[in-house]
Design a protein that fits this description.
This protein is an alpha+beta fold. About 40% of the residues lie in helices and about 20% in strands. The chain contains 14 helices and 21 strands. Strands 20-19-17-18-16-15-21 form a seven-stranded antiparallel sheet. A hairpin with a 7-residue loop joins β17 and β18. α4 packs across α5 and α9 packs antiparallel against α10. The longest helix is centred in the C-terminal third of the chain and has 45 residues.
């Protein structure tokens, strides 16, 4: 999968069709490397997302809104100063590179017409959004790059903007047969590799597709092909180029089952065993393909500090639990010491002082037993010594019983937080988790008042909401706070509660409406409970389910912790691809 020159060309065409002569109405910077522009054109409002994220650089039209920081970043404020109410006059793709250049007309402080350029470079970890004047002088960029970071190009205010040329690459839009033939005949690489390494904006996927359309093995070398075959290869390559020039695009995604594996702006036929789905717009395709994983990627980045705290604490708690179990195992000797003491008290009169051991009859088992003795002590003093050991181990046993229960509860709680981090989708979800960690003492918060203000300002985190095949509403808690609220505030007594057996996972509530549920609803709710648990990667997961009225929460229990004594069980597959999320 690649955001290559063909996809950028398709995007440029789409943006030209709907954004030219549109005016920039709002400029927001929801992420440190992302802009969301609201553009009004032809009585319609469009949201243009530009992201220079190193993992998922993107540009597309979206209907989604994003939460903005309380204070706009400097780059956002700069763009607002220059570009509010400015008009987009042209959108181009320079030299078929992975770059989109928005030329924008606005009025300066004196009321004169001026032109600026907002340039997004979609180049993986080198992605950037750069703001320049009409003389290619950089005004600022969303990522500032100095000479210490890059020896090829400095991106700082006051420097000249230029496109870093890929050495030796050819713009495929200028392709002709003589050029193609002279280049490929001198190549010592497989033909597909030669194509994507020689021509700008051609990805390995498109190079493979060109070979597929020409019925050639992509790993074949040009020296193995005659001129007629090379001409056939050129024609297939040129056909794609002519479609690009004519604006004929077919955005489609290749699926392996339900998993999207590749996409392009041309039909991909080289994956003959997989299915293709066409899209009306390249923006719709990119949103469909990237949105979910881009959200997950950002949430993972933002949750890194919390994850480290949870994983470190979990690791330490696991070690503590192991140590306590070993100590508990050592207390198994206490009963032996008690018996030694009792037998020495009973038979001490017949044991000679100074003996190193004594063999006596154990009246509990009616068998002889050898008891080690300290020869410097009398038999009665040896008995007292064993009773002291017994009492010490007994006290240790009682203390460890409580400690083991507390440590196990702590592990279960931390594992539930770890699971909540895995399924978090929004910053508000992370905020709920952080609040829980603060409340339980895992995170020290010196600025609680500030966080309370932020809590009021942020959107409330809501549970996941699904619709069963039979029309029943199913809700899934994304963290312990939501689990408690779903189970004890939202659910009624007749609703059904589901949870993965004996492991961290979400509370799943099925609203029964007082009706008897079809078997399929139980199966689908079980799938959700399995999928949103630590066992989601297993083939089958055992699920406990019970009516809500039988669920109890002990006093002073940790968030998300419940008890129940009678329940039903089912085995579920953690696959929710057939369920509709609302």
């Amino acid at each position: 999968m690649a955001l290559d020159g063909l996809v950028i060309s398709n995007l440029t065409q789409e943006f030209n069709n709907i954004l030219i002569d549109g005016r920039i109405n709002k400029i927001n910077q929801p992420e440190s490397d992302e802009l969301l522009l609201v553009i009004k054109n032809n009585r319609t409002q469009y949201k243009l997302l530009l992201s220079a994220n190193a993992s998922y650089p993107l540009a597309y039209i979206t209907e989604e809104s994003k939460t903005n920081p309380l204070t706009a970043p400097n780059f956002c404020m700069l763009l607002r100063k220059h570009l509010n109410s400015a008009k987009i006059v042209s959108i181009t793709q320079p030299d078929f590179e992975r770059i989109i250049d928005f030329k924008i007309e606005h009025l300066n402080e004196l009321g004169d017409i001026c032109y600026k350029h907002l340039i997004i470079e979609l180049m993986g970890k080198h992605s950037n959004i750069i703001f320049t004047d009409d003389q290619d002088n950089i005004i600022d960029s969303i990522k500032r790059i100095n000479s210490m970071v890059s020896s090829i190009r400095t991106v700082l205010p006051g420097f000249k903007y230029f496109i870093p040329k890929q050495q030796g690459k050819i713009n495929p839009l200028s392709l002709d047969y003589d050029m193609f033939l002279s280049n490929i005949k001198g190549s010592n690489q497989p033909i597909y590799k030669h194509i994507y390494l020689t021509y700008t904006g051609i990805s390995p996927l498109v190079a493979n597709e060109i070979c597929h359309r020409a019925s050639l093995n992509p790993d074949t070398y040009s020296s193995e092909l005659n001129d007629d075959v090379l001409y056939h290869l050129y024609n297939n390559f040129n056909h794609i180029i002519q479609d690009i020039k004519n604006g004929k695009f077919t955005p489609n995604i290749v699926y392996n089952g339900t998993t999207p594996i590749e996409y392009s702006s041309i039909h991909i036929g080289c994956y003959s065993n997989y299915s293709n789905t066409d899209f009306q717009s390249i923006s719709g395709l990119l949103f469909n393909f990237y949105h979910k994983r881009e959200v997950i990627n950002r949430i993972n980045q933002k949750s890194a500090d919390i994850r480290k705290i949870v994983s470190t604490t979990l690791e330490r708690t696991y070690k503590k639990y192991d140590l306590q179990q070993k100590q508990m195992k050592d207390t198994d000797k206490k009963e032996k010491y008690k018996i030694y003491g009792e037998l020495l008290t009973t038979y001490g009169y017949s044991i000679e002082t100074g003996s190193k051991s004594a063999t006596v009859n154990n009246y509990y088992t009616n068998e002889d037993i050898a008891i080690p003795l300290d020869p410097t002590l009398s038999p009665i003093d040896n008995a007292k010594k064993y009773f002291n050991k017994y009492n010490k181990l007994k006290r240790t046993y009682i203390a460890l019983e409580k400690q083991l229960e507390e440590t196990k509860d702590e592990i279960e709680h931390l594992e539930s937080i770890s699971n909540a981090l895995d399924i978090a989708r929004l910053e508000s979800d992370l905020a709920d988790i952080k609040e829980e960690l603060i409340a339980t003492g895992y995170i020290k918060n010196k600025h609680r008042n500030v966080n309370n203000k932020q809590k009021k300002a942020r959107n409330k985190s809501l549970p996941l909401h699904y619709l069963s095949s039979d029309g029943y509403h199913i809700y899934v808690g994304k963290n312990n706070a939501q689990n408690d609220e779903l189970t004890f505030k939202f659910a009624s007594n007749s609703d059904w509660w589901f949870h993965a057996k004996g492991m961290a996972g979400s509370h799943v509530i099925v609203k029964s409406n007082g009706e008897e549920l079809p078997d399929r609803v139980f199966e689908e709710a079980g799938m959700l409970a399995a999928y949103y648990s630590k066992a989601k990667d297993q083939q089958k997961v055992e699920i406990d389910y019970i009516q809500r009225k039988h669920i109890k929460k002990p006093n002073n229990a940790k968030p998300g912790f419940v008890i129940y004594h009678t329940n039903y069980s089912l085995v579920a597959i953690p696959d929710i691809s057939t369920l509709i999320e609302l």
